[in-house]
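Checklist before submission:
- one chain only
- standard amino acids only
- sequence pasted in full

Submission:
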Amino acid sequence: MAAASVQVVNPFRLPKHHSRSRPLSVRCSAAASSTKRYNITLLPGDGIGPEVISLAKNVLSLAASLEGLEFKFKEMPMGGAALDLTGVPLPEETLSAAKQSDAVLLGAIGGYKWDKNDKHLKPETGLLQLRAGLKVFANLRPASVLPQLVDASTLKKEVAEGVDLMVVRELTGGIYFGKPRGFGTNENGEEIGFNTEVYAAYEIDRIARIAFETARKRSGKLCSVDKANVLEASMFWRKRVIAIAEEYPDVELTHMYVDNAAMQLVRNPKQFDTIVTNNIFGDILSDEASMITGSIGMLPSASLGESGPGLFEPIHGSAPDIAGQDKANPLATILSAAMLLKYGLGEVKAAERIESAVLNTLDRGFRTGDIYSDGNILVGCKEMGEEVLKSVNTNTPASV
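Returned file contents:
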C-alpha cells in the first residue's frame, strides 16, 4: 500500500510557523488515495477503553463517510481483556491484525484485577509488545489549552492561557526496553532489581530528526530534555541531538535537564513549543503537560514508525474506578481518531472535520465531569459522543 506523507502539526490549530521546507515524512501504511478504502484495527482494551472506542468509531465512521472514505473495522482483544480470553496480553492474532491494517486505534489497557500478575502477564507488557511489534518509535503528544477550557486548568489563567506545545517522545528504546534487566542478588547477598538505560546512535538520530521537523512546522524552537549532568546515556543523547541540529540551522535548539523541565512546565509552560526526550522522561513529562490543559481526558497521541501502520490512542489510562458508569471523557479518543486520519492516512479534511466538531461541542457548553465548570452542561460519556456526532454532521464552524 502507498505511504502517506504526513506534516506534523498541532491537532487543534494550524502550525505557528508554516515553512516551505520539506515536510516531515513518517511513512504509515495507507491505501492509495484513489481507492479511499482503509482497514482499521480497533483495540478497545480494558476499563473505559470499550466505552470511548465505541464512540470514537462512530465519529470516525461518520466523518469518513462525509469525506467519501470507506472503513473496514476489525476489533481485537488486548491487555487485560486478552489475558482473560487467551492468557496473554497481546495474542499473536491481535498483533497480526494490527500489522496488516492501515492504522490502529487503541482505547486503554490495565486494571486492578491484573496488578499482581507476573510481569509477562501484565496488560502493560502487551502495550510494550505492540509498540515494538509495529516498530513505532516516535510518540507525538500535543498539549494545547483550548480557549473553552482555560478555566479547567489547575494553573492560574495567566499561566495556562495560550499554552500550545508538542512532546516528541522516543518510544521503543531506553530503560523500558534496555538489557540487561531483571532481578538478582548483589555482593552482599541482598535482592536487587535492575534496568538498563541504553540508546544507540540511530535511535536518537531518527527521533531527533522527527522532532526538528516538527519544530520547523511550528515556531522553530526545540528543547531537548535529558539528564546529561549525571547519566552517560543522556550525555550521548545530547551529543547526537547536537550533531543532528547541524541539519536544521533554521531551528533553535536548547537543552534542559529533566528535573528543571518538570518544574518549568508548571512555572512557565508557554516557554516551550516542541520538546524531544527519551522514553521514560517523555512518559512523565507528557502526562504532566496534559494536566496544564485541564484534564488528561482531552489529549490524544500518535505513535509512528518509518513504515507500517501507526498506533493512535488517548494518553489517559483505563480508569477502572469509573468504567461502565458513563463518566469517561471520550474526547481524547475521538481526537486520537482525528490524528489517525491526519497522520496515519493523510486524510486531512476528515481529520479537521472531527477537530472542528470537538471544538464546536465545547463551544455549545457540553462537558464531562472532568472538565465541568459552572454555567456549562454536564453530560456523560455517551451523550458527549452523541453531541460530537451532531457537530460532525453539521460541520458548524467552531471557535479556536
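Reviewer check: Residues 49-66 form the longest helix (18 residues).
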